[in-house]
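2024-03-11 09:14:02 INFO queue: dequeued item Ammonium transporter, len=449
2024-03-11 09:14:02 INFO validating residues
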Amino acid sequence: MRKETLNGIAALGLSGLALAEGVDGADTAWMLVSTALVLLMTPALAFFYGGLVRSKNALNTMMMSFVALAFVGVGWALLGYTLAFGEGGPLLGGLGHLFLRGVGLEAQGTIPHVLFLAFQGTFAIITAALVSGALVERMRFPAYLAFLTLWGLFVYAPIAHWVWGGGFLGALGALDFAGGTVVHINAGVAALVGALVLGARKDYGRQAILPHNVPFTLLGAALLWFGWFGWFGFNGGSALAANASAALAFANTMLAPAATLLAWTLLDLLRTGKATAVGAATAIVVGLVAVTPAAGFVSPLSALLIGALAAFPSYYALLWRARTRLDDSLDVFAGHGVGGITGALLTGIFAEKAWNGVADGLLFGNPAQLGIQAAAVLAAVVYSALGTFALLKLVGLLTPLRAGPKEEGVGLDVTQHGEEAYTSGEGAILVLSEKAPAVSSLKPQGGEA
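2024-03-11 09:14:37 INFO prediction written
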């Protein structure tokens, strides 16, 4: 698409307003599209997770993603953004943008500041929503809302500042193009801690807990890949401009998951003789996760290698987890935590200055980069684990974290939302309001029955 065309698209949304000095119309158009695509990823995640749980918990699981749009989104606008990107120190941003102060149409790089706020907000939203995959089918919804909001402010925002907002990891030279450390390691470790704090579902290890709608999961995986076109908004958009770096990220985000899917399918066939659809959906996500930190820093051939290599640790971490009492319900740590760690470290190996103009990795004469990547991984793991544990314990002091055994048995759709995803005939469960009369007190009018 020619730059003149992109400028024209941007102008459509700014009719009557001149672009601020330093704002580029083409870059603004690219980032408008990228922001929309990344926002789409949270509903996509709802379908991905929703298909993997039992039908009695489908709505609750999907709602855990959808409400992130509200609770994390509002928190990000009012406080999270300034903690992440406000002028501050090496550990935390200042309060200069508290309640959106000073966030307007002025240039942030080459795009309007308010658009930069929105783009970064979509990252915060989906990162918090990712954690829910380890909490499904047993966490009370009010407790989840409190935890989700606090986590976005006090775990996600500081790590985002460390890497992207002028903090110490960025100053150290850590490479994280679109969120391997900030998003995936952070969410994966938080999910692991959440699963440990909550404990296993009451039926875990006693009966098969099977996905109720695998096509939902495949749809979610497809939309996530498209949104990574938004991570092709995430990855492509993270260049923050319509430039060669965005084009490289775009290509790499197509190639890496394809290689992961290929390797994962072969592993499935060699191990069991069958290639599962849930495995294919998981492989796509693992490949997307692994290439996220590397997308703008490695060659396309290296992206293929990263994708293929990332399949192995996540695949075997998932198999190991299934043999333990750890109820990371939807394998968030195996997919996002292990995949993110793998991708971050491989970035330190395969980064190539000829492609990124920033830094080389181990294979191209700079072994120190791998050490820097490892330090960033360690920092994110430790802070996310400690912060998540503290917030869950704090929320637990205010309201119970776990649904009761009877609530789990009925399903969280009914007990937490008063709804059902599916009905049989006229409805499987009658949900009465608190003011509704008891069934035994209802009598037909006009005399005895």
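2024-03-11 09:14:37 INFO annotate: Residues 368-398 form the longest helix (31 residues).
2024-03-11 09:14:38 INFO item closed
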